[in-house]
Amino acid sequence: xxxxxxxxxxxxxxxxxxxxxxxxxxxxxxxxxxxxxxxxxxxxxxxxxxxxxxxxxxxxxxxxxxxxxxxxxxxxxxxxxxxxxxxxxxxxxxxxxxxxxxxxxxxxxxxxxxxxxxxxxxxxxxxxxxxxxxxxxxxxxxxxxxxxxxxxxxxxxxxxxxxxxxxxxxxxxxxxxxxxxxxxxxxxxxxxxxxxxxxxxxxxxxxxxxxxxxxxxxxxxxxxxxxxxxxxxxxxxxxxxxxxxxxxxxxxxxxxxxxxxxxxxxxxxxxxxxxxxxxxxxxxxxxxxxxxxxxxxxxxxxxxxxxxxxxxxxxxxxxxxxxxxxxxxxxxxxxxxxxxxxxxxxxxxxxxxxxxxxxxxxxxxxxxxxxxxxxxxxxxxxxxxxxxxxxxxxxxxxxxxxxxxxxxxxxxxxxxxxxxxxxx
Length: 424
Known about the structure:
Layout: H1 13-19, H2 25-44, H3 53-67, H4 88-93, H5 95-99, H6 102-124, H7 128-132, H8 139-152, H9 155-163, H10 167-179, H11 189-198, H12 203-210, H13 219-242, H14 244-252, H15 272-277, H16 283-310, H17 314-327, H18 340-348, H19 354-366, H20 371-380, H21 386-395, H22 397-423
Helix pairs in contact: 2-8, 2-9, 6-8, 6-10, 6-18, 10-11, 10-17, 11-13, 13-14, 16-17, 16-22, 17-18, 17-22, 18-19, 20-21
């Protein structure tokens, strides 16, 4: 099965879309707007120095380029004091934000977050739509509204709004590139852009590479790989022509300093390396263990992603690859787990298997509540044994959960699908 295809049932998606009359969509959009308004209002009207602090980094970076100042030497005003940590092409792309006033930039960016989430939800839960066609014109818009609201209140998505983060846009780009049925752009273009902007989507280059060759290779994947690599390469070279000093400083200095990203031992770093660093073992031992885990988890995750694609389940292949971006990275903040929206779509499938729906619901709830911060509270209580051991485990909950999701998608889901199909 080629990229962009998902297991289908009758009636077709076209029928589902036709069944969803245009008049049903405005009420659905209003329902979403009303449900997310408290979250948006809280963060957009919060204390100014606590409001969309990462957007402030992007905007200040764009302003630095327009002013001819070094991109990687500035920090945002106190109390945040955040440096620009993205590749130089991201700074170039952020220059339009610098032209906007700060209040306008906040609203434009927040609307963009929800548009990107809408694209992600639409693609991640696409398999639902054919099954809902028989339910009439309201079913698809209402389900879309419910899914948008549910996904908005996932903690990684709440943090997109809180910090003004770019992650959900990168999720939408990579997901659309992989699963869109008839893309109007060269497939691979969006993955290349995402990789050039924030490096971690580069795991999709590995995914495209391992699915492009071998016994069950996909020629379309190879073409997609070529386009993605070419796009990422051109966008990486471009800053050397426009802002050469900034480009050199990033690739030969700033990139190598992980402390620029923030406290690597902090609770918000839920990567495997972050979990190991919080054990405070000797650095050589932690590094050795991390590299071993990267090799083991990477081998398992990418292998299962290849198998999922070969079995025709592109969405699960994308979800597995996305989890590699979180787990294998040296630093993965909680908001990087915006990929969990794709995971939920892969687990839910077409909505006909109640067990899969219950599992997806459990995963949704797990990532709604702020479990890692409960671990911080438990550790602060200084209860013998419980605080240092159980507290640490709870503190790492989202990272450990991501490891569990890799197993769910890679091992449990194929067995569950085979069991259901054999019973039908």
